[in-house]
Every structure is written in structure tokens, then in C-alpha cells.
Amino acid sequence: MWPLRATRFSVCQRTARARARHSPRPTPHPWLTYTEPLRLTGKGDQVLGAFIECTDWMRVFTPHAERAAARGWPVYELATGHEAMVTAPAELAELLLRAAAA
Fold first, then answer.
1. 3-class SS of residue 75
2. Biggest distance spanned by C-alpha atoms of the chain
3. Which domain holds residue 7?
4. Which domain of life does the protein's organism represent (predicted)?
5. Burial 63-98 (b: 16+ CB within 10 A, else e)
6. Is the same domain home to 1 and 34?
């Protein structure tokens, strides 16, 4: 699936800088992720995880954060929208490092 133009993303409609930064980066989504069946073995349940909830966009990810917390994962909040890697890259990197160190 070919990526959407950066102008279609809400974050890129805000500033020319965001458009310039994001425009060359999208890549096609691998088609096999839509067509190849996923075979789970249960080993993934043994992998530790963490959840970063982006809280500045309607809090639509709260149920996922609650599910992660129920699994015992640390849950971090980041006051930005869904495109945190564009809108808050330094803060996101800090949380990823904290999660990796936990």
C-alpha cells in the first residue's frame, strides 16, 4: 500500500517545517502484512513490553493503555498526538529509553 501524501496527515497541515520533515520519509506498507496469515506461538506473551499513550488526540488509545497495564507493562503518557515521532521526537526518544531500561 503506497503511503499517503504528507499533506494528508494532520500534523503536516500545521507547519511547513513539519511537511518538509515528513514528506520524504513515508515508505510503502508491506503488502504481505495484509495477505499473509499471522501464526502466533504464544512465545510473545513472554516478551516484556511497555506502552506509550499519546494523550493529545481524543484519548482514543486509553483502552489499549489499560490492557497493557493489566498485563503488567509500564504505561507512559506523552502529551502529543498520534504522530509523536514528528511532533515530539525528543520526548518520545526519552520515553523509549526509559522503557528499554525498565
1. strand
2. 45
3. 1-38
4. Bacteria
5. eebeebeeeebebbbbebbbbbebbbeeebeebeee
6. yes
pLDDT in tens, 1-46: 566 565 555 555 566 776 666 666 667 788 899 999 999 999 988 8
Residues 87 and 48 in one domain: yes
> What's the pTM?
0.70
Euclidean distance between CA atoms 73 and 50, whole angstroms: 5
**Can you give the C-alpha Rg of the chain in angstroms?**
16
63 and 75 share one domain = yes
Please say whether the beta carbons of 3 and 30 come within 8 A: no
- Whether the Cβ atoms of residue 56 and residue 80 lie closer than 8 Å to each other: yes
